[in-house]
Write a structure and sequence with these properties.
The protein has 273 residues and is α/β, with parallel strands linked by helices. The chain has nine helices and 14 strands. Strands 8, 9, 10, 11, 12 and 13 form a six-stranded mixed β-sheet that branches.
């Protein structure tokens, strides 16, 4: 029935066009009227999120000062505040899902979350499975050791190294020294606990959380020489251009007005850098 009606409507429109052409006394098409121009969708399409009106961020909230859970059970940290600022720029409510680091990456890759922020570094392997925003912070990989320990960058390959599973610290160490010299833990806290218990000789992790762990645990120190320098960015599902463009636009505005730097300075005072 719907098909039959469509045919009738098409026929009626054709007759109307023919009648208008005859009345005009010309076979040239009438000029387009104002307001009939068809606008192509913007590149990347319409911005949509996993849950309408919500920006869902997957993270591993055991990576101070970028993300952590305070005594009240609330999420806080550099990534948390930047994500909140981005959500506000986009007119969305921020939802934070806490999970293991690997799971946080997978959630963004598979569209279970809109983005992942967990001190995530852009790498060639990660670029194969997800897209990344412009960098919003610089991270440095350092080595935590016990005070007085005979551990240096020169003999690191002879030691047992603790890292957080799935992080670039784990990737760098296994590439440099082999998997037999590296033990991966679910989070930085567990890796540092293993160091204190003598299960590993050192821990390779980002400088900011390393400073927090050393401050909270007597008897630990950080080697003077930095291991690797890298940039943090926000990961989204591969091909989600609309969301990536929106995030980059928000980041640009937040960088321009000083919000990003103010958030970083709040958690990492200049004298601690």
């Amino acid at each position: 029935m719907k098909k039959f009606l469509s045919v009738l409507m098409a026929a009626a429109m054709l007759l109307s066009v023919c009648a208008l052409t005859a009345c005009g006394g010309s076979e040239e098409p009438a000029p387009e009227t104002e307001g009939t121009e068809v606008t192509e969708p913007a590149e990347g399409g319409e911005l949509t999120t996993v849950t309408e009106g919500v920006l869902t961020m997957s993270t591993n909230a055991a990576f101070p000062p970028y993300e952590l859970t305070n005594d009240a059970g609330e999420y806080e940290g550099i990534d948390v505040e930047i994500a909140q600022a981005i959500a506000e720029k986009l007119g969305l409510e921020l939802q934070i899902d806490d999970m293991d680091f690997d799971a946080a990456l997978m959630a963004a890759q598979n569209g279970k979350s809109d983005m992942v922020m967990a001190g995530v570094t852009v790498s060639e392997d990660r670029l194969l499975t997800m897209d990344f925003s412009e960098s919003y912070a610089t991270g440095v990989q350092v080595v935590i050791v016990k005070e007085g320990a005979d551990v240096t960058l020169d003999n690191l390959g002879e030691m047992m190294i603790g890292t957080q599973r799935g992080t670039t610290g784990y990737i760098y160490c296994t590439d440099d020294y082999g998997e037999e010299h590296v033990i991966a833990y679910d989070n930085g806290i567990t890796a540092v606990q293993a160091l204190m218990n003598g299960q590993v000789d050192c821990v390779v992790i980002d400088k900011a959380p390393a400073q927090a762990f050393v401050e909270a645990n007597a008897g630990l120190t950080i080697l003077d020489t930095e291991y690797v320098t890298e940039n943090y960015a926000i990961g989204v599902a591969k091909g989600n251009t609309a969301l990536l463009d929106a995030i980059n636009g928000a980041l640009a505005e937040l960088t321009e007005d000083g919000t990003i730097q103010a958030i970083i300075d709040k958690y990492i005072p200049a004298e601690a850098e």
